């Protein structure tokens, strides 16, 4: 990989453009403003050092059947190995600026299936280490469905008992993983004012699309610098393993900054690329919505049992072979019927693209090819796919290969695959069992929040 393929510290490099993205979001926001302003603080020496794990890279992976493949690596923070790093850094930077400006203390609260929480905990630990804020001023509480326990990763907060206690992890016993979202939001809305009055800590519920798409706008800026879309460019599609497609909506916001604001620092793209959605069979709702117009599981193709496997040949957008028609490859992708589907469908309807659902069986069948492609971009996958704890990268590459093989991605297309996450226990150690607190329902979650604020 050459130096010019890597964009280092994109949150500083594109700060002026990200502020324009935030201005667009603020001007169009239909709901009440968040308790922490969307304005981005100006980077100083400490903030620049705090942001310095926000790198991105773009690597060509060669040609396959007339399509050129590229990998946009968004997981270059070794402390998280996921694309949630830039948004988490921006949120914590905004929180630290809020503390300095108002004197008000904050507790960030977020539901997560793993990666958002790990990235926020890593960002809070970095803020402590770089002197942006102290544990008495800013803390974070994450609420994780019990089924996602294996996704949680260790970080510097884990190594200090006092920091671990001040930044607890609620392991929620919920009926479905997505239930952690309303559970967390209800607790914050119902008891946030009382906790603030008793302790001085304001609760900030951060599972908000705007918190993520502002940071993800940097994807469009990096592309415009490394591989601009000119009038002579080949057709282009961005392929992404998605749960709610926050990252692609962030890219779309960045594209708007480049085309509507016309900054002098980067060229405006000649056109908008297509989006190609990649999902799994347990949560295929965005691909179903795009291809079938709804999210009911009855819209899935009918699978027939065949010697321990299940097969279908009616619809190329869904796995031809799977070990389980409802399998969950990765607990991170837990969202059903995401509210973002209509907007993503409109973008694909206007600019092209599509989607595909992959099975673990198909990912494993293509694993040697996927591993070789990842290695070209400097990412070393384990020899045994059973060691993988975050499947986003494997799903994305396997989905792109499937789309090419089945003609879902047209010949002559440049396919930019978003590498949004990969880790194994060897790459990123798991969180110790004793560092989580089981909670049953809203009352126990509120007790944990009160303890975090009072400690």
UniProtKB/TrEMBL annotation:
InterPro entries found in the cross-reference section: DUF6002 (IPR046044), TrpB-like_PALP_sf (IPR036052)
Superkingdom of the organism of origin: Bacteria
Name recorded for this polypeptide: DUF6002 family protein
